[in-house]
């Protein structure tokens, strides 16, 4: 019996294998602006779509990150990847850590881009309710995007990204992933993990700051480091794609190709 896989986009055929997981408002298409700058001779990149999102929009499920981790491993098995690295943007930072916990021996290194830590966003009930309100309200999605990029970018761009978010995700999946990254703390499970981690944050991101990264990711992963991307907020793949692609390639090349 053929196993059903999540949808994904594969770029490159290099010996280093990397899988990227997008944010709550995103999809595999978020990574497209990076593609012209990625070293596709050195890397094979897979851009993953969660169930209910993008190329997996019609795929039903529980819409949890434990489920997503198993979906990632199924793709890796399908592609014949024994070991690979992970990139996670925003809520994808939580998701890649669930993959790490599911198969620690298979993960070479991780890169977090404006990445939510393993403690989640620690939202109280009132704030969680506010975020639930964006599920069916594209204008509220746009407002969050504008805030998270420092309120400095074109409102037309924030509105466009919000519409793309709504188009690329099912409301039930979108709603179900929210508590997974907003109110779920599994930091005790990753504390002391020796996996190499690099965190990339935007200088204009008001929430995923250097202080937060220092108190969370850098405190829990002894081989973690931090880099601030200039002229970026929460969406550096759109705001500074060439700089982000260059930084990711440089970090991920520090792990050698498979023997």
Automatic annotation (TrEMBL):
The record's annotation in InterPro entries points to: AB_hydrolase_1, AB_hydrolase_fold, AB_hydrolase_sf
**GO CC annotation: what is one?**
membrane
Under the heading Gene3D superfamilies, the entry gives: alpha/beta hydrolase
UniProt feature coiled coil, ranges:
none
What residues does the AB hydrolase-1 domain cover?
22-239
Which one Pfam family would you cite for this protein? Abhydrolase_1
> What protein am I looking at?
Pimeloyl-ACP methyl ester carboxylesterase
């Amino acid at each position: 019996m053929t196993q059903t896989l999540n949808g994904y986009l594969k770029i490159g055929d290099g010996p280093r294998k990397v899988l990227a997981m997008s944010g709550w408002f995103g999809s595999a298409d978020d990574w497209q602006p990076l593609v012209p700058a990625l070293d596709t001779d050195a890397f094979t990149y897979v851009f993953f779509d969660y169930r209910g999102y993008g190329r997996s929009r019609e795929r039903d499920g529980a819409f949890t990150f434990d489920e997503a981790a198993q979906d990632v491993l199924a793709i890796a098995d399908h592609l014949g990847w024994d070991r690979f690295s992970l990139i996670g943007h925003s809520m994808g930072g939580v998701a890649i850590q669930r993959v790490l916990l599911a198969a620690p021996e298979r993960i070479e290194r991780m890169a977090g881009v404006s990445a939510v830590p393993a403690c989640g966003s620690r939202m109280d009930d009132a704030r969680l309710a506010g975020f639930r309100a964006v599920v069916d309200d594209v204008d509220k999605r746009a407002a969050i995007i504008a805030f998270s990029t420092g309120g400095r970018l074109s409102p037309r761009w924030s509105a466009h990204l919000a519409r793309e978010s709504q188009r690329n995700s099912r409301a039930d999946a979108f709603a179900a992933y929210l508590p997974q990254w907003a109110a779920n703390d599994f930091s005790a499970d990753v504390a002391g993990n020796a996996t190499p981690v690099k965190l990339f944050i935007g200088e204009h991101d008001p929430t995923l700051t250097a202080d937060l990264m220092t108190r969370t990711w850098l405190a829990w992963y002894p081989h973690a480091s931090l880099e601030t991307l200039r002229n970026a907020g929460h969406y550096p793949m759109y705001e500074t794609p060439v700089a982000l692609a260059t930084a990711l390639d440089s970090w991920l090349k520090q792990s050698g190709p498979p023997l």
